[in-house]
Design brief:
elongated, nine-stranded mixed β-sheet, alpha+beta, 479 residues
Length: 479
């Protein structure tokens, strides 16, 4: 394997986060009753005509800008002709000749090194229907047919499975924070096709490539590439021809399986879409789309580390979820203790989310309540120990403020010096023999008295204030 260079190019199909489909007014949905979210255009009824989804174009422009692409402001569509059950029209509306974006780049990090990935093109098109294979029958759900897509195609510049995975992960992060798509690979809103070939090191010419279709997880991308590289290496070492073909990944055997030869590829007979005239986008509108794009994770990451003093690891954990990120940013509007907010989110709250297999926006927890709890700790009204009692309550019920819960549970910290002194004096009087050890073992004496004070008060004494008063009263007593 060390004798050969791995050559990888990636194609990603991304479902756009629009309310309606790309060329019809039918709603976009997932998990609905099959064939209920379709209309005459989706089903290719005679006389039905496509209309372009303006929001879809806006999301495509956002993506082009984030990927540093040249944007073509003259939008044109083409027909990709093929007869297959997943498209009732007998063709797909796409952008074969004039993609809206081209010549982009995206930086990835692999093993501490930065690599610039060249992106050839981004084009808009419509999704096909979903096919469900059962026994010897195929069922078709047209709910997905016509959903807006962008296809993002890299040049063959990736050189390892790790680089390919890092690229898809980075692309997913960009699309998620742009709110272009929910990029859920398990639901098909981000689908990955990987083109893989190998060649002897130093060779400029590409070998026959194999395309592995519809990989639905990062781990499967890695497994498919590693298997395919090993398979092709064995063929090449045995002087056998690597057939240019399309394969699929079988996750039960962790291997790729042949689907069809590239020599059997269809001639799609592309031509201009006659029902959609070219559209010249106004420069001001394109600039407005870019200006109003949401903040990317890379910008947030720098801000979290430099301005909020959060560790890079904690920042990365928060930024893996758009819901967690939005919750964090809303919470810090009510408190300045940024690190404490981050710590609670990625520890106690994340543990609860994992247990319930949910996201933070599904909890009853309010950002203002989490901030209030943190502020009460900082103000010594409650202790960190009390947060273990309060947090489960506010995660399930938002009807009461944190201070109301504190008062109901009677867990407010005792900070009044006179009150603490009145509690400490009886403890000292009952431990006079212990005080004789103070000159030699002062820490043992004060900690013992502190322990008894906490026991008497149920742990509700301000520890710093309590310890200062204990030291003062003990030293006065032994004089």
């Amino acid at each position: 394997m060390k004798n050969f260079e791995i050559v990888i190019g990636i194609e990603n199909h991304v479902e756009l986060k629009t309310k309606s489909k790309m060329f019809s007014s039918a709603p976009v949905s997932y998990g609905e009753t099959p064939n209920t979210n379709v209309n005459e255009t989706d089903m290719a009824y005679p006389g039905s005509l496509p209309t372009i989804n303006k929001k879809g174009i806006e999301l495509a422009i956002r993506t082009c800008n984030a990927l540093n692409m040249e944007i073509d402001t003259l939008v044109k569509f083409d027909r990709k002709n093929y007869f297959y059950p997943d498209l009732t029209k007998g063709y797909q509306i796409t952008q074969q000749y004039n993609p809206i974006g081209k010549n982009g780049k995206l930086n990835i990090s692999v093993n501490g090194l930065t690599k610039e990935v060249d992106i050839e093109r981004l084009h808009m098109e419509e999704d096909t229907a979903k096919q469900i294979h059962k026994d010897d029958l195929t069922y078709i759900d047209y709910n997905r047919a016509g959903t807006g897509l962008v296809e993002i195609v890299t040049r063959p510049v990736l050189r390892s499975a790790d680089e390919a995975c890092a690229y898809v992960e980075k692309l997913r992060e960009v699309l998620l924070f742009l709110k272009v798509s929910d990029v859920k690979m398990n639901e098909g809103s981000l689908r990955t096709d990987v083109n893989i070939s190998i060649r002897p090191f130093g060779t400029e010419e590409f070998s026959n490539k194999v395309e592995v279709k519809n990989l639905n997880s990062i781990s499967n991308i890695k497994k498919a590439i590693e298997f395919e590289v090993e398979r092709q290496t064995k063929l090449m070492l045995n002087n056998e021809i690597i057939i240019q073909e399309t394969r699929r990944f079988d996750d039960t055997t962790n291997s790729t399986v042949s689907m069809r030869s590239k020599s059997d590829a269809l001639d799609y007979k592309y031509f201009r879409e006659p029902n959609i005239m070219p559209i010249q986008l106004k420069k001001e509108w394109v600039e407005d789309c870019i200006k109003n794009s949401p903040e990317l994770a890379d910008i947030k990451r720098i801000k979290y580390v430099n301005d909020y003093k959060i560790s890079i690891n904690d920042a990365n954990i928060i930024l893996t979820s758009i819901e967690m990120t939005e919750f964090f940013e809303e919470t810090i509007k009510f408190t300045n203790n940024y690190t404490k907010v981050a710590n609670i989110l990625i520890s106690d709250i994340q543990a609860q989310l994992n247990n319930e297999n949910t996201t933070i926006d599904k909890l009853a927890l309010l950002p203002s309540h989490l901030a209030e709890m943190i502020n009460l700790v900082d103000q010594s009204v409650i202790s960190s120990k009390h947060t273990k009692t309060i947090l489960p309550i506010i995660m399930k019920d938002s009807s009461k403020s944190v201070i109301e819960i504190v008062e109901e549970l009677n867990i407010k910290m005792i900070s009044d010096e006179n009150e603490i002194a009145n509690l400490v004096n009886p403890i000292i009087e009952s431990n006079l023999e212990l005080l004789e050890q103070y000159s030699e073992r002062p820490e043992r004496v004060t900690k013992t008295i502190m322990g008894q004070l906490m026991k008497v008060t149920g742990g509700n004494v301000n520890p710093e204030t309590g310890m200062n008063i204990i030291i003062k009263l003990v030293e006065n007593k032994i004089k």
